[in-house]
From TrEMBL:
<dbReference type="InterPro" id="IPR016176">
    <property type="entry name" value="Cbl-dep_enz_cat"/>
</dbReference>
<keyword id="KW-0413">Isomerase</keyword>
<dbReference type="GO" id="GO:0019670">
    <property type="term" value="P:anaerobic L-glutamate catabolic process"/>
</dbReference>
<dbReference type="GO" id="GO:0031419">
    <property type="term" value="F:cobalamin binding"/>
</dbReference>
<dbReference type="Pfam" id="PF06368">
    <property type="entry name" value="Met_asp_mut_E"/>
</dbReference>
<dbReference type="InterPro" id="IPR006396">
    <property type="entry name" value="Glu_mut_E"/>
</dbReference>
<dbReference type="GO" id="GO:0050097">
    <property type="term" value="F:methylaspartate mutase activity"/>
</dbReference>
<protein>
    <submittedName>
        <fullName>Glutamate mutase subunit E</fullName>
    </submittedName>
</protein>
<keyword id="KW-0846">Cobalamin</keyword>
<dbReference type="InterPro" id="IPR014714">
    <property type="entry name" value="Glu_mut_E_C_dom_sf"/>
</dbReference>
<keyword id="KW-0170">Cobalt</keyword>
Length: 490
């Protein structure tokens, strides 16, 4: 087993500013515009707090008032395309005032390939259309990011991480956006191949400390802890990695987290995941001395394959919004029908906002009531997450950063599908008769016997109902259960 130097320890000011000067700002020429942090923080305060468009404050207030914030996603190659598209959605849908923006950077930016992002920008100008699947924030730099911030009415956050999102986050925060997603484990398992987890945690420690510095100096931040992964993951595993990330981010000084749940599309199981995760994030943070941290529950949509037809895609999006509202989410991240084939269009996103806001109106104060099935699901999830947490804490002698790295090596920490070469990948998942996600084989994960038996019993009920065996064919078939179009009898 490898030996690791990583520890869950706050970066000192000396360490932080050394990394900033030597590793982060020199990554691309636009980093020069961020050298004066005092000026960056002052401008960010003016553009977010000063204009009443601070992401963290808006999220906190909505949570306290019981308001649902709708959160469309958008990313185009050029700044003028971004402003045109985002203003279109705000003008053609009821996004304002109860809305947020999730802005995507392009794939080259996420992989720190800024030279190729520059090529994409030039081609977009020449072709008169977007040739990138997001906005290349690092190439355009802080002044262009501020231009977008001034043009739109809703607070914004940046979704740009993969291996190293530090310069992108620096740019976004200095422009008055929210950023610095706290999700090193998710990034490795969802978007990376070769980077080691200890290296990714070290990178993410910088981003978390950056967000905390802005927060401490009067520009509140609410970094996302996401469990979106690849879309084919158990609710218990998702909850576990979010609790781990809560400890890692809190150590760096973050005071408010946006818990972003990539749902599995079973209302009872997803609601249980949201409740258990928030409870255990608070409990473990209290245990390690982080006593003043706020966690706000929000949901994203299913991260697996979407069906390639408007009607079925709309049904999935409607279900996701209903799960978020009835499960207790504050913000609802939206997809649109275009995404079965391409990146979101402004027309598609405006339509999704209108659909989601009307569902919010129709559901009113209706919430998922407490019931035996929900309590049982919460109990099993809590048993699973506690077992995983305690195993990793024990391995790391109380240090979760070390323990999670050792857990990956030992195969305790793994999921079914991942591009990451360090993921052991001998976990198998399938749906039960109610389409909840269950373990068919939990591999080397240290799950309590009670949890294993619960999952097996649920799967046996499906096998009996369908009159077919539980086997690998069922695992494969379930990968497309949501994207497969129905057969029309003629």
């Amino acid at each position: 087993m490898a030996k690791y130097e990583i520890r869950n320890k706050r970066l000192t000011d000396e360490e932080f500013f050394r990394i900033r000067k030597e590793e982060v700002l020199p990554q691309w020429e636009t980093g020069r515009d961020l050298e004066n942090m005092d000026e960056c923080i002052s401008a960010a305060h003016e553009l977010s707090v000063g204009l009443g468009r601070n992401y963290a404050i808006t999220l906190r207030d909505a949570n306290e008032q019981g308001i649902h914030l709708l959160q469309p996603q958008f990313g185009r190659a050029l700044t003028e395309y971004m402003i045109d598209g985002m203003c279109y959605v705000e003008d053609e849908s009821p996004l304002v005032p109860a809305g947020l923006w999730n802005v995507f950077s392009d794939s080259y930016t996420r992989k720190n390939n800024y030279k190729m992002a520059a090529v994409g920008i030039e081609r977009s100008i020449q072709e008169g259309t977007t040739m990138l699947n997001g906005w290349p924030i690092v190439n355009f730099g802080v002044e262009e990011a501020r231009k977008i911030k001034r043009a739109v009415k809703s607070p914004m956050t940046l979704n740009s991480t993969d291996e190293d999102g530090r310069l992108a986050s620096e740019t976004a925060l200095a422009a008055g956006w929210n950023a610095c997603n706290c999700r090193s484990i998710t990034e490795c398992m969802a978007h990376c191949k070769n980077i080691r987890l200890d290296e990714e945690i070290h990178i993410n420690q910088y981003e978390s400390r950056l967000a905390a510095i802005y927060h401490e100096r009067g520009v509140p931040q609410s970094p996302h802890i996401s469990c979106n992964l690849t879309g084919y993951d158990s609710c218990g595993f998702k909850s576990f990695i979010m609790v781990v990330q809560a400890l890692l981010g809190s150590e760096q000084g973050i005071k408010q987290f946006y818990l972003e749940f990539g749902i599995n599309m079973n209302m009872v199981q997803d609601a249980a995941m949201m409740r258990v995760t928030k409870k255990l994030c608070e409990e473990y943070c209290q245990r390690f001395g982080y006593t003043d941290v706020r966690f706000i529950v929000n949901n994203n949509m299913f991260q697996g394959a979407f069906p390639p037809r408007l009607e079925e895609a709309s049904a999935m999006m409607n279900l996701a919004v209903m799960i978020g509202i009835m499960g207790g989410s504050t913000a609802l991240v939206l997809k649109c029908q275009d995404e079965a084939f391409a990146t979101p269009t402004k027309e598609g996103m405006a339509a999704s906002v209108r659909m989601a806001r009307h569902l919010d109106t129709l559901l009113g104060a209706l919430r998922l009531p407490d019931n035996a099935a929900l309590r049982e699901e919460e109990h099993m999830l809590e048993l699973e997450v506690r077992a995983m947490m305690e195993k990793c804490l024990e391995a790391g002698d109380g240090d979760i950063a070390l323990g999670i790295c050792l857990g990956v090596d030992a195969g305790w920490v793994q999921t079914m599908i991942s591009p990451w070469k360090y993921n052991r990948g001998n976990v198998l998942l399938m749906r039960d008769a109610e389409n909840a996600m269950r373990y068919f084989n939990c591999g080397d994960m240290p799950l309590p016997n009670e949890v294993k038996q619960y999952h097996l019993d649920k799967l046996k009920s499906r096998a009996a109902k369908e009159g077919r065996p539980l086997d690998f064919d069922m695992v494969v078939s379930d990968l497309q259960y949501a994207s497969r179009l129905p057969i029309i009898q003629k």
